[in-house]
TrEMBL record:
Note accompanying the cofactor annotation: Binds 1 FAD per dimer. Binds 1 AMP per subunit.
Annotated organism of origin: Tortispora caseinolytica NRRL Y-17796
Stretches assigned to the Electron transfer flavoprotein alpha/beta-subunit N-terminal domain: 27-220
Function: The electron transfer flavoprotein serves as a specific electron acceptor for several dehydrogenases, including five acyl-CoA dehydrogenases, glutaryl-CoA and sarcosine dehydrogenase. It transfers the electrons to the main mitochondrial respiratory chain via ETF-ubiquinone oxidoreductase (ETF dehydrogenase).
Keywords: Electron transport, Mitochondrion, Transport
Cellular location(s): Mitochondrion matrix
Pfam families with a match to the protein in the record: ETF (PF01012)
Subunit relationships: Heterodimer of an alpha and a beta subunit.
Protein's UniProt name: Probable electron transfer flavoprotein subunit beta
Family annotation (SMART domains): ETF
Amino acid sequence: MSSKLRIMVPVKRAIDFAVKPRVNSAKTGVETAGVKFSINPFDDIAVEEAVKIKEAKKGAVESIHVVSAGSSKAQEVLRQSLAKGCDTSTLIDVGDASVEPLTVAKMLAKLAEEDKSNLIILGKQAIDDDSNHTGQMLAGLLNWPQVTAASKVDINESTGEVTVEHEVDGGFETVSASLPMIITTDLRLNTPRYATLPNIMKAKKKPLKTVKPADLGVDIAGRLETVSVSEPPPRPAGIKVNSVDELIAKLKERGAL
């Protein structure tokens, strides 16, 4: 490998996966008051993979830089990532604004260029909006090869070639490309570690820089308007049948046969 790995890991502060979201009274989004937030699970997997690469490839990784776009509260997930083994961090302070994937990708692209990153690992999607856009848009902006929904990653230190396995409709596909590269992570990739108390304390001393979107030359004004948000319709109750003939008759009644 001609140069050391400089890994960037974008992470998002999202409603905790164990919380059942509720639509707010204004019907403009989900209720966030009094709700538990944590690092987006797919991003947590990305952090773990970056740290695992650093541990496995002794001396091959120069730094792991973790980035989040959000309010000051997003410092929580940055500190958590630092406690798990990331080296430096940046908060893109967008306040309480809801930032669209393309805007996030533009800001990440700028930071990647400034940080001279050559590998970006991020979750395939956030569990709040489920967009699954940012990684692909970032690859397009940087003109880097990408592999989405990775379930296995292997880096050849001598050639700088990255081989990734990911799930497709018919099974698994293995692809490879040379650095620089973007990888989005799936649940199969790994199991994130817990941050230990000593590492949480050490993380408080690691660098956390704050920048504004304007510092990156990016306008965060939204292009999309949310008209209304509503709960899905309740699922109708099921029925029991006593025979195959009765089942067929019921299916015919509902136009399923």
